[in-house]
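Predict the 3D structure for this chain.
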Amino acid sequence: MTEQLRLMAVHAHPDDESSKGAATMAKYVSEGVDVLVVTCTGGERGSVLNPKLQGDPEIEANIHEVRRKEMDRAREILGVSQEWLGFVDSGLPEGDPLPPLPEGCFALQDVDEAAGELVRSIRSFRPQVITTYDENGGYPHPDHIMTHKITMVAFDGAGDPEAFPEDAFGPVWQPLKLYYNQGFNRPRTEALHQALLDQGLESPYGEWLERWKEFERKERTLTTFVPCADFFETRDRALIAHATQIDPDGGWFRVPMEIQKKVWPTEEYELSKSLVPTSLPEEDLFAGIRDNA
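Done. Predicted structure below.
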């Protein structure tokens, strides 16, 4: 294919791009693919999850700006471009019953109107491939679910001049493939868990697997396994750049790198839509595109 390959990853908050598909993006950047991360919200209502930074009044008072700077560092590490859609974080409601979502937040926006902002980005960047979350958001955060909704509308709408007129949203562009990030899948978790136990090491995945049984979580169909072990260190550095969200001594980093690379050297995706022929399973998000101009 003679045209420049372009990948767009649509995420809800700063740090999501580094925990979901980051090694894949770094791999494609190294191959000359243009990669754009679209971040729907600023993460303004996110908690400080790193215990080393909790209680810092300056961080708490300036969380929006702090998270923007963290995103800048992660973007540079991954080598990607990044843009903000500008919506306001909805927060993660807790309690029984759940409290109402904050007025004006991302999850309460009109889906078609919010999708229009993403359509503008798609038509400007012109990606052949888009990645995002499944209908459950990967986990049921209202912003993740809303990200899924607007991406589904925008994938089709970017190529529809009647739904989104060119004079307002730019010249039409139809992406060719849409994937759901499925990196947190049960086969991967079980394989790493068993590998750690076989080495006599403590596994951070025991509780995860128990929760899987408790909630009888539906297994997703993994269609695409991107080999990207050479970029796991880059992924981790990008994740650590989100210092308010990630404890570098926490569970994310308890699996020795050599075990990760040997036991599960890929990141996984679920192909949701394809306008080009492809054969499953795949090893490349651009399968069916590279050879079809």
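The chain has two domains: 6-184+221-274, 186-219.
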